[in-house]
Design brief:
It comes from Serpens gallinarum. The chain is built from 8 helices and 8 strands; from the N terminus they run ββαββαββαααββααα. It is an alpha+beta fold. The strands form 2 sheets. It has a 6-stranded mixed beta sheet. A two-stranded antiparallel ribbon has the order 7-8. A hairpin with a 3-residue loop joins β7 and β8. α7 crosses α8. The chain is elongated and about 140 Å long.
């Protein structure tokens, strides 16, 4: 007769909302949710925080993986979601003691598989609000109906009865230290991401304000030039009218002192001069009309060129739409796109983002790292060649080796890529 095996580890998942744990299920039930056999309408159109846990026969948590999953408007799980939860749990780092010894813990700030880090979250470890304590208490309540072993009675005589208070105190202190270290790592990462996001938003806002200021400056210069031209024409016309008035007054005075014949001669001269002025004005207007006709022809030519460009862009749009349909079919078949980039690691690219990624991969990666595209290119040059970019008095690059900054958001131009001699306070030129 074969010996009876002890109960094995039980896999379960627990869902969190703003109030705490809102749903519990065994992992086979969760697999039914992933296969869309079961719909969770309570989570429709949401990104939900979920925890995968391993429970031993005495209802102690042995491992916990904090991950995120999206649901559509009908409560169906994202078909592209694919995380090896058991593999991550088996290779996770050391966590706090929840009653059965230190657990294995995997979260955003402590993930053994780097390209899954963006799909994970950090637990709240504040005293009195700890998510780990909520998990421990939920397992002890055993709402899942797990079969648990009865704890064996310890013998009266044994080394367990002689543990000293000092040892227990050290154990509790070590556990508190691990919890605080995990909490500090989580807060530091959140602060770093928020700082990078604010820095990127500030740089983008500064670029928009600079562009707006340049446009206003250009419009102001054009308006000032137009005002000066109009003022000059106004002065010129006023001088012409004043001279004509003076000339007419002079002629009228001559008419008063000369006889009729002389007046007729003057009238004839006036008519000749008037006709000459009219002819000159007509010629000027004809010249302006010719200029306008040339400008109109040039504008028509530009319109034709713009129409050709619109036709070309329409064709390209249709081609891209065809490619998008192909990508959607691949996505429905479960195909995932993963690309590796320094600073961001392995990126899982959805079918909707493939076109944007193809247009400018570095800009796509920079947005994932919460930095601008120019900032990421400067960091990438430093990452590939960590040497001082300062300029020597001879005009050559310094080239002194510097410490490599592995994270784009921590890279500071003029500081991280310069040696102590060419820091931002003294580095006036960079190659």
């Amino acid at each position: 007769m074969k010996p009876q095996h002890k109960p094995q580890m039980v896999e379960a998942v627990m869902f969190f909302n703003h109030r705490g744990i809102c749903k519990e299920m065994l992992f086979p039930e969760f697999e039914a949710v992933l296969d869309r056999v079961v719909h969770l309408k309570d989570f429709a159109d949401q990104q939900v925080r979920v925890v995968f846990i391993l429970i031993d026969p005495r209802l102690h948590i042995r491992a916990a993986v904090f991950f995120l999953i999206d649901f559509d408007t009908h409560g169906n799980a994202d078909t592209g979601w694919n995380m090896p939860l058991r593999h991550i749990a088996d290779h996770a780092g050391r966590g706090p003691d929840l009653g059965g010894g230190p657990i294995r813990l995997a979260c955003r700030s402590q993930c053994p598989v780097s390209w899954h880090q963006m799909h994970m979250w950090d637990p709240n470890l504040k005293p009195g609000q700890s998510d780990l304590v909520l998990l421990r208490d939920a397992v002890r309540r055993n709402n899942l109906g797990l079969l648990a072993e009865e704890p064996q009675l310890a013998s009266v005589a044994g080394h367990d009865a002689v543990k000293t208070v000092d040892f227990e105190h050290r154990q509790r202190t070590a556990q508190l230290i691990r919890q605080q270290r995990l909490r500090l790592n989580s807060l530091a990462r959140q602060h770093e991401e928020e700082l990078a996001r604010l820095r990127l938003a500030g740089e983008q806002q500064q670029i928009l304000l600079r562009q707006e200021a340049d446009d206003l400056q250009q419009a102001l210069a054009q308006q000032e030039q137009l005002n000066a031209s109009l003022k000059q024409r106004l002065h010129s016309q006023a001088d012409g009218f004043q001279k004509a008035r003076e000339e007419l007054s002079r002629q009228l005075r001559l008419l008063e002192t000369h006889d009729r014949s002389e007046a007729e001669v003057l009238r004839g001269q006036f008519e000749v001069e008037l006709q000459a002025r009219i002819a000159a004005a007509v010629a000027e207007h004809k010249e302006q009309l010719s200029i306008l006709e040339v400008e109109l022809g040039y504008r028509n030519e530009l319109d034709n060129q713009m129409q050709d460009e619109i036709d070309r862009l329409t064709r390209e749009r249709d081609q891209l739409a065809g490619q998008g349909d192909q990508l959607q079919r691949l996505a429905k078949l479960g195909v995932m796109f993963v690309a590796y980039h320094p600073g961001a690691g392995h990126l899982t690219i959805s079918a909707q983002d493939i076109t944007r990624y193809q247009q400018d991969p570095q800009a796509y990666v920079a947005a994932k790292c919460f930095v601008s595209a120019d900032h990421y290119r400067d960091w990438l040059e430093h990452y590939q060649n960590p040497a001082c970019s300062g300029t020597l008095t001879s005009g050559e690059r310094c080239g002194m080796p510097v410490d490599r900054v592995d994270t784009p958001s921590r890279f500071v131009r003029g500081e991280s890529n310069c040696c102590s001699r060419h820091k931002a306070s003294a580095c006036t030129r960079t190659s």
